[in-house]
Design brief:
Helices cover 33% and strands 17% of the residues. It is α+β, with helices and mostly antiparallel strands. It has a domain of 45 residues. Helix 1 runs parallel beside helix 2.
Length: 94
């Protein structure tokens, strides 16, 4: 039996990666204090709040992305990884 590949050992690093990819798509650089606003059918990200629309998972942070992160769902690392991979795919319409 093979072990499932996980992109990151800390799922919230994937949130930072997603925000970085949103910035890249918008032609800007990520500022941890000014997270870009973006929304599609799969997710939205705005100042201090990320929402995964498929199951309502919300992730919030305080002032700077990565600070005092909290989630409304207690997901496994694998579940977080799947969620963020889905968001990244939707960003690039894959």
């Amino acid at each position: 039996m093979s072990e499932q590949f996980e992109m990151y050992d800390d799922p919230f690093k994937m949130l930072i990666l997603l925000a970085t990819l949103v910035c890249e798509k918008q032609g800007t650089e990520l500022d941890y204090g000014q997270v870009p606003s973006y929304e599609n059918d799969t997710f939205s990200i705005r100042h201090e709040r990320f929402v995964y629309k498929k199951d309502g998972t919300e992730i919030t942070w305080f002032e700077f992305l990565g600070r005092d992160i909290a989630s409304t769902q207690d997901l496994t690392r694998s579940e977080y990884n799947k969620m963020f991979v889905d968001c990244m795919a939707s960003l690039y319409k894959l």
